[in-house]
Amino acid sequence: MNNKAKYTQQIKAEAKRLGFLSCGISKAGFLEVEAPRLEKWLNNNMHGEMQYMENHFDKRLDPTKLVEDSKSVISLLLNYYPSQEQTDNSYKISKYAYGNDYHHVIKSKLKELTHFIQDEIGEVSGRAFVDSAPVLDKAWAAKSGLGWIGKHSNLLTQQVGSFYFIAELIIDLELEYDHATTDHCGTCTACIDACPTQAITEPYIVDGSKCISYFTIELKENIPTEFKGKMDDWMFGCDVCQDVCPWNKFSKPHNEPLFNPHPELLEMTKKDWEEITEDVFKKVFQKSAVKRTKFSGLQRNISFLKPN
């Protein structure tokens, strides 16, 4: 076995040991197919007020401009599908935000993987990314065979659907590279038909400025009144397009204790949410990604959802 093959096997085995669902590797380089798509999406203002999407256009499409001398993009998936969900009579939170903030959980796993690579293989440089830098996560995961990008623009796999996080290690080590898989959406339009705000404007294109996740997390101004009554009780994020996807019937609960929700979270009713105090917010979401919207943001979302 040559060194490239050996190192690749070692990295994938360690990723599995750390609890990652899967690991795929691509050669670092310019994303030719994604370039015109991203440009068109930005030109059509589908990023709404997410101004940061316009920054670092070149780096977003070419990791060699982001990480010096990079040779490989290691893509990793981490399952977050919960074993229990919120009570029916509740305003809803996206499943990914039930437990501890994924950025911290995944960063520490990536740190361990980096240390392993340096201990076992030697002087390897690179950077870890968890949804916080100009990296097209889904494009790289698809390129490395971890799934295909579905009509709802999320990464999908036949084995476990789409309820997982994507992260990357971009390093200056040549490895053996995986190949993209095929698209298995077929003629299905479940996600397009179910989107409460018609944010999926055509297959594989999501208008971010109409997405419930955008309204409840990214948008700092008031939610546009034309979406009143169309938010399907989502107060932080939205899982509709994933919930209706036939491939997600294969989702299996995660086994990451840090992603388990605060016990109170699952029991809270609409009335509890409407009366939530800042102290309860801090207690329930102490380590959660929901903190990003702040107490005032969550209150804004809840009052928008309340019937007049």
TrEMBL record:
PANTHER family noted in UniProt: EPOXYQUEUOSINE REDUCTASE (PTHR30002:SF4)
Reactions catalysed, as given in the entry: epoxyqueuosine(34) in tRNA + AH2 = queuosine(34) in tRNA + A + H2O
Predominant location: cytoplasm
A Pfam family: QueG_DUF1730
HAMAP family: QueG
Taxonomic superkingdom: Bacteria
Pathway(s) per entry: tRNA modification; tRNA-queuosine biosynthesis
A GO cellular-component term linked to this record: cytoplasm
Residues binding [4Fe-4S] cluster 2, per UniProt: 195, 211, 238, 241
Identification of the protein by name: Epoxyqueuosine reductase
Active site (UniProt): 131 (proton donor)
Keyword Oxidoreductase in record: yes
Locations listed in the record: Cytoplasm
Keywords assigned by UniProt, alphabetized: 4Fe-4S, Cobalamin, Cobalt, Cytoplasm, Iron, Iron-sulfur, Metal-binding, Oxidoreductase, Queuosine biosynthesis, tRNA processing
Binding site for cob(II)alamin: 60, 131, 155, 166, 213, 238-239
Domain 4Fe-4S ferredoxin-type: 173-205
Known partners and oligomeric status: Monomer.
Residues holding [4Fe-4S] cluster 1: 185, 188, 191, 245
Positions annotated to bind tRNA: 220
GO molecular function ontology, one term from the record: cobalamin binding
EC number: 1.17.99.6
A Gene Ontology BP annotation from the UniProt entry: tRNA queuosine(34) biosynthetic process
Cofactors required: cob(II)alamin; [4Fe-4S] cluster
